[in-house]
Write a structure and sequence with these properties.
5-stranded antiparallel beta sheet, 4 helices, alpha+beta, Alpha-Beta Plaits, single chain, elongated, 2 domains
């Protein structure tokens, strides 16, 4: 039976001398390499920042030069009399148009109110043998066209209309009954506001060509 006896103990193994010349040189080399790389990076970053600073400085000088030129132009600028007059004329026209719009806005409720009163009067004084087919209404003139079933219905209707506020102060400029091409009995009525009533009566809503359904009176 064989047995191996190891007489080479661990304490006899060679040890690394970290303070040897080779180890120290290697460590110094690594540190120097790291310092060199870090310095190169910082130098590159510093150079880039300096170049960017120079560009910004040059751009700022250019902008300042442009600002100085514009300020000089503003200082030396003189108003053009023709341009000033044109601006004043435009302002005057706008002021006139604004006053016209305000006046129209103020009159609008009165016109709608007057037209509503007219429709109420026509409905109140309705004639069973007469119906309005169309009418055109303005502040001074009114025109009605329609059909009647008997000639006597038309004068009766005129008499009834003369009693309403919408037709008070108006003269009948034209009133006629006639036969159309289909032998239907038609009528036409035109009224005109008299001079004395023009200033006092409320304005009617302008509604030229307003067509009412057949049978409306």
């Amino acid at each position: 039976m064989k047995s191996n006896i190891n007489l080479y103990q661990s304490r006899f193994e060679p040890r690394i001398d970290y303070l040897s010349l080779a180890s120290v040189s290697l460590a110094i080399g690594v540190v120097a390499l790291i310092v060199l790389i870090t310095g190169s990076i910082y130098h590159y970053l510093a150079s880039s920042a300096e170049a960017e600073y120079v560009k910004l400085l040059e751009r700022n000088r250019t902008h300042q030069s442009q600002i100085d030129e514009l300020q000089a132009e503003v200082t030396n600028w003189k108003a053009d009399p023709a341009l000033i007059k044109k601006v004043e004329d435009i302002k005057l026209d706008l002021s006139k148009q604004r006053r016209v719009l305000e006046e129209l806005a103020a009159r609008a409720p009165l016109r709608f109110k007057g037209f509503s009163i007219l429709l109420d009067d026509l409905a109140d004084k309705h004639e069973s043998d007469l119906w309005i087919e169309s009418m055109a209404v303005s502040e001074t003139n009114m025109t009605f066209n329609g059909q009647v079933s008997s000639p006597q219905a038309f004068p009766r209707w005129l008499q009834r209309l003369s009693e309403t506020s919408s037709f008070r102060g108006r003269s009948f400029a034209a009133a006629r009954v006639y036969m159309d091409e289909d032998d239907a009995l038609k009528f036409e009525l035109s009224t005109r506001r008299t001079a004395s009533a023009t200033a006092a009566a409320p304005a009617q809503q302008s509604a030229p060509g307003l067509t009412l359904p057949g049978g409306a009176q």
